[in-house]
Design a protein that fits this description.
Largest sheet: 5 strands, antiparallel
Number of strands: 13
Distance between the termini: 45 Å
Strand order of the largest sheet: 9-10-11-12-13
Shape: globular
Strand content: over 45%
Helix content: under 10%
Number of helices: 0
Length: 142
Amino acid sequence: LWIIPVGEDIILVSLDSIGNVGWWGLEKGLCYCKKNLGGLVQSTCLFGDRILCVLLVNATSAVYVWDLQSQLMLYEIQGDCFVKLSRCSVGTDTSMLLACEMFNGVNRYFDLKSKSFIELVDDDILAGDPGNKSLEPIIQEP
């Protein structure tokens, strides 16, 4: 459950185990919107009071990123190997990084601002000691 102030109303966002998301206006007592994301909720992560990331497991695993205030899906990250989501930060960096843990134990980091996967230099962020790591984009040679 998440509670978000929107204008004069307070929105309660509920998410159940089979992927139903509901936006409830507490002031008016109305359900503004209800959607089924189509899978079992494996993991969730909230950035601030606005951005909700949900990992669903159905035929494949997919990460859905929602703007809770506008109730719009911002983007979807397809992949058949994600098992867990978590929020992470690097040093004093304010970028919104989503750590996507994969079946093989490797973590991929999705930057919600640039909408792309990045690599971390000397990656030990999930070991609990982020230190002063710098972010570098993945450079692929043609």
